């Protein structure tokens, strides 16, 4: 069953089509990746899903009925990429205030604050002002403030920004646990390796339009190029390799990357080397990464590649806005 259904959504600004006839569904309990290059329409989509913006046309269904911002907003937790915390306010007071904005009683909010502050080992921050915290520490506080009211839908926009590897893993595990317990999560990021690791399904948008939508595993299968890496105990000679079943793409000291020819199968590759008594130590199909699919799809639409693929955290490839 789907928690969110987006049906033919439109949102235009003057002559700019921010969202142009986009439809997709988000199953309950899934971790759903919302992807796209700069200016693709992701932020506009998120703001319509949270009721900040109203669509010009189309429909958003929440739990099978038309989305009503007045009543459904308490079932949503939204953690934007930009910090949404009051810098001069103390951490504990701020968490309490934000929890009550989401409809929690003071008593329930204090119980949840104690639970999460204990779990994240940040009780010593309770009376510190937000401006005294590092970017990563603020991110932990913002994450806790977003999930304290146990939302049905959790929207995370670059949730690992500013976090060291240990705290990133802490947040990542909480995302998995929340999903297992039934929370539906929309995950927006420019880091494609995080998408592959975390998301069940994705939708890719560009220039306001949907380019693809589906399960991560199936998308990788759909875009595979029939490449295989074969490892050898002893490198075969040319006579043992030559065949019409594949072409050699890359040669390593004890391995080949090959591409199947049309009409051949991976069994044909194995049979060929077995017939020539070539010792095979490994045989692996090479599937495209989500980053490669992303670049291919955006390039095929625009004729130009998006910004260079991400190399490290200090130079992000794609913005989540």
From TrEMBL:
<dbReference type="GO" id="GO:0016887">
    <property type="term" value="F:ATP hydrolysis activity"/>
</dbReference>
<feature type="domain" description="ABC transporter">
    <location>
        <begin position="4"/>
        <end position="232"/>
    </location>
</feature>
<dbReference type="Pfam" id="PF00005">
    <property type="entry name" value="ABC_tran"/>
</dbReference>
<dbReference type="Pfam" id="PF13732">
    <property type="entry name" value="DrrA1-3_C"/>
</dbReference>
<keyword id="KW-0536">Nodulation</keyword>
<dbReference type="InterPro" id="IPR003593">
    <property type="entry name" value="AAA+_ATPase"/>
</dbReference>
<comment type="similarity">
    <text>Belongs to the ABC transporter superfamily.</text>
</comment>
<dbReference type="GO" id="GO:0005524">
    <property type="term" value="F:ATP binding"/>
</dbReference>
<protein>
    <submittedName>
        <fullName>ABC transporter related</fullName>
    </submittedName>
</protein>
<dbReference type="InterPro" id="IPR027417">
    <property type="entry name" value="P-loop_NTPase"/>
</dbReference>
<dbReference type="InterPro" id="IPR017871">
    <property type="entry name" value="ABC_transporter-like_CS"/>
</dbReference>
<keyword id="KW-0067">ATP-binding</keyword>
<dbReference type="InterPro" id="IPR025302">
    <property type="entry name" value="DrrA1/2-like_C"/>
</dbReference>
<keyword id="KW-0813">Transport</keyword>
<dbReference type="InterPro" id="IPR050763">
    <property type="entry name" value="ABC_transporter_ATP-binding"/>
</dbReference>
<keyword id="KW-0547">Nucleotide-binding</keyword>
<dbReference type="InterPro" id="IPR003439">
    <property type="entry name" value="ABC_transporter-like_ATP-bd"/>
</dbReference>
């Amino acid at each position: 069953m789907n928690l969110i259904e987006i049906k033919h959504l439109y949102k235009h600004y003057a002559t700019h089509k921010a969202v142009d006839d986009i439809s997709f569904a988000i199953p309950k309990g899934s971790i759903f990746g919302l992807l796209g290059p700069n200016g693709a329409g992701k932020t506009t989509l998120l703001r319509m899903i949270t009721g900040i913006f109203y669509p010009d046309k189309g429909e958003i269904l929440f739990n099978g009925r038309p989305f009503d911002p007045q009543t459904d907003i308490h079932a949503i937790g939204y953690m934007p990429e930009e910090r949404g915390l009051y810098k001069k306010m103390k951490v504990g007071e701020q968490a309490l205030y934000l929890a009550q904005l989401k409809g929690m009683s003071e008593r329930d909010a204090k119980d949840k604050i104690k639970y999460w502050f204990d779990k994240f080992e940040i009780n010593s921050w309770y009376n510190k002002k937000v401006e005294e915290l590092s970017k990563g520490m603020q991110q932990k506080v913002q994450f806790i403030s977003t999930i304290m009211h146990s939302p049905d839908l959790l929207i995370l926009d670059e949730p690992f920004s500013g976090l060291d590897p240990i705290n990133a893993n802490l947040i990542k595990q909480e995302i998995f646990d929340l999903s297992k317990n039934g929370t539906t999560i929309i995950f927006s990021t420019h880091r494609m390796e995080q998408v592959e690791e975390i998301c069940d399904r994705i939708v890719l948008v560009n220039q306001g339009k949907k380019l693809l939508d589906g399960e991560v595993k199936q998308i990788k299968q759909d875009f595979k190029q029939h490449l295989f890496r074969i490892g050898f105990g002893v490198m075969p000679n040319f006579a043992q390799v030559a065949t019409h079943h594949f072409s050699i793409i890359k040669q390593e000291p004890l391995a080949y990357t090959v591409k199947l020819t049309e009409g051949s199968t991976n069994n044909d590759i194995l049979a060929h080397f077995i017939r020539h008594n070539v010792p095979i130590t490994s045989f692996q199909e090479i599937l495209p990464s989500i980053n490669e699919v992303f670049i291919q799809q955006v390039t095929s639409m625009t004729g130009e590649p998006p910004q260079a693929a991400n190399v490290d955290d200090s130079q992000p490839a794609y913005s989540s806005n």
